Amino acid sequence: MSKDSVNDLVKKVKKKKRVTTCENESEQEKGEEEGREEQKQNVAPNTGNEHNERNEHNEHNEHNERKEKFYSKLKFDDLDICDSLKKGLRDLNFTTLTEIQAKCIPHFLNGKDILGAAKTGSGKTLAFLVPSINILYNIKFLPKNGTGVLVISPTRELCIQIYNVCKDLCKYIPQTNGLIIGGMSKNEEKKKFMYGINVLIATPGRLVDHMQNTKEFIYQNLICLIIDEADRLLQIGFEEELNIILKKIPQKRQTALFSATQTTKIENLIRLSLKKPIFIEVTTNIATVERLKQGYALVDQDKRFLLLFTFLKKNMNKKIMVFFNNCNSVQFYNDLF
Ligand SMILES: Nc1ncnc2c1ncn2[C@@H]1O[C@H](COP(=O)(O)OP(=O)(O)OP(=O)(O)O)[C@@H](O)[C@H]1O
């Protein structure tokens, strides 16, 4: 898009009532004023030792409180899992289970299906990797048996993140692991399937492609299915792929499904994929700094660009971090500013 057309768009949007995180400008200004006041209090210059100590004391308490909310009382060493996994966890400096891990892992090890409602950053990844990998280890699942654990996640980035944890965790165990995501060479992936990927982390589109076209992909022995971020999977439009996958994989298996929100579509997916699941909820939002003020704007797709562009232009002098859901958007906005 040329600079002129962008300027035209900006002019247009300026004429319209501006959508902001607050309902109107004066409210926003009031909010900003309060925010500045709060910021002043939080970062007030040191005026003496007493003030310093009080701040340090508060920060210390807050840190401890957050730690208590994040961690459970259970240690990985107390779990009924193999020593090789325990050693891998120790190498990664994981000693105490987070709340979601303490609630999920024992049930999954006992053969139950899991329906997890947990916010991002709660430690879901280990909550499903530790028990499912342990199951494969116990039954001595071999590369020639194909895929025993399948983790489906909505984006390439999330899959890579899970795969990296899985690789480190499996350092001392013989089971193989692999990543299958869109954008990679299918031939290379075929070679990996020929050897056998015991723990497979995949995006749904590429996974269905291999299920339909790669005879080397053995998924008939699948034991555990993990559906990560189910709400996002459906939001992106992977319903059809999920239905195909669920029809093809064995019905006799264990499943864990994680979703931050519940919708009718997710209820259908739950009915299709889980059997008498244990419902696990972790409500503490440990991902966000407690003092952070938050707001949001619901914007139609076609107005999103205009809103973001004007907002960023208006706040050029501030430090802002913007997250996008794909690489192309990041590139586009980076080129624009
Ligand atoms: N038991 C633990 N002890 C210490 N740190 C942990 C533990 N479990 C997870 N973490 C750390 O917490 C962070 C969040 O974990 P993880 O990525 O599994 O969360 P998540 O709920 O899957 O979030 P996301 O959806 O963003 O991936 C990671 O940096 C991870 O290394």
UniProtKB/TrEMBL annotation:
Region of interest: Disordered: 1-67
DEAD-box RNA helicase Q domain residues: 74-102
Biased composition, class Acidic residues, residue ranges: 24-36
Record remark on domains: The Q motif is unique to and characteristic of the DEAD box family of RNA helicases and controls ATP binding and hydrolysis.
Pfam family, one: DEAD
Matches recorded under InterPro entries: DEAD/DEAH_box_helicase_dom (IPR011545), Helicase_ATP-bd (IPR014001), P-loop_NTPase (IPR027417), RNA-helicase_DEAD-box_CS (IPR000629), RNA_helicase_DEAD_Q_motif (IPR014014)
Family in the record: Belongs to the DEAD box helicase family.
Primary enzyme class: hydrolase
Enzyme Commission code: 3.6.4.13
Protein name (database record): ATP-dependent RNA helicase
Positions of short motif Q motif: 74-102
Limits of the Helicase ATP-binding domain: 105-280
Ranges of compositional bias, category Basic and acidic residues: 1-11, 50-67
Role: RNA helicase.
